[in-house]
Amino acid sequence: MNPIAFYRVLPLVALLLLTTGCGRSSPEREAEPGTVTVVATNGIIADLARRIGGDRVEVISLIGEGVDPHLYKPNRDDVTTMMDADLILYNGLLLEGNLDEALRATGDRIPAIPVAESIPAERLLTPDGPTAPPDPHVWLDPRLWAFCSEPVVEAYVELIPEHEAEFRGNQAEFMTLCETLSAEGRSSIGTIPERNRILLTSHDAFQYFGRANGIEVRGIQGVSTESEAGLADIEALVVLIQDRGIPAVFVESSVPPRTVEALVEGARARGCDVVIGGELHADSMGAPGTEAGTWPGMIRHNLRNISTALGPRDGTESGPGA
Fold first, then answer.
1. pLDDT (tens digit, 9 = 90+) per residue, 183-208?
2. What is the pTM assigned to this prediction?
3. C-alpha pair distances (Å), 160 with each of 142, 147, 154, 170, 263
4. What domains are defined for the chain?
C-alpha cells in the first residue's frame, strides 16, 4: 500500500480495533439458519443483493438515498455494522472514495467484494483518459449491471451452498430484467428527436447510459463530484445550449442543484428557452416506497423524465433524421 493510502486507512483501522478488539467480539446475531447478513455500501447494490439472495439474506445499506457516495465518509456505527456482517458488497472502481480502503482493510476477516470490478475491462469507460480510473457509474447501463450479479451469486454459494439453485434461479430472473430495461431504454430515448439527444446533468455520471441508449452526455462537474465546476465550464455549456437549442437540463438527487440553476440562468440571459427538466437519480436511488426507490424504478424514472423533457413537442416527429 502506498503511504498516502496508508494514512487514509489508519484512522479507520484504529476505529475498527476500538470497536471490535483483536477479534470479532460483537454479540452473535440471531439470524435464521441458512441466511447471511450482507452489508452493501449503497441502495443500488443493496437492491442487487436482495434480488439475488431473496429470503436467504438480510441486507443493510450504509449510504442512504440522496447521499453522494463520492463524498461519503464512514462513521463508528458504519464500521460496527461492517464488522458484524457475513459479506460486504461495494461498487469499487473508486466510487466509494473514502470508504474503499477501509473496506479492503476488512477483507481478511469478512469477504468484501467490489461488484463492478467483475465487468470486463474492455466494457468500461475512462472519460478522463486511458490512465485514469474507469467511470464507476456502471449500474446506469443494465447490461453492464448484469455482470455484477455473478460475484454476488458466487459469494452466496460459498456461504450457504445448499441454496445454490435458488440463487442461480434468482440470477436468471435478474438477467431477464436487465435485458428488459435495456430494451426499454433504447425505445424511450428513440422517441427523442435526434437534434435534442443531448443529456446535460450535474456531473458526468451518465456516460454508460448515453452509450447504451444513443444519447450524447455532458456533465457540469466531472465523473466524481469532488471535481469543481468553474465559470469557464458553465460558460462553455451555455454556448452549447445556445448553439444546439437544448430545451432542458437536469439536476441530480445527490448533487446540490446550484450549478445547474446557474447554467439555466446563464442560458436564459442569452435568450435561450431552457428549463430544468426534472430530477434524475445517478449515484443513489429514491426513498423507499417511491418509484425510484428500487433500481428498476430508478432507471424507468430517469428514462421517463429525460424522454418527456427532451422529447417531441407540437407534433414534431421523433427518430433518426427528425
1. 999 999 999 999 999 999 987 899 99
2. 0.84
3. 27, 21, 10, 15, 52
4. 3-183 (3.40.50.1980), 186-310 (3.40.50.1980)
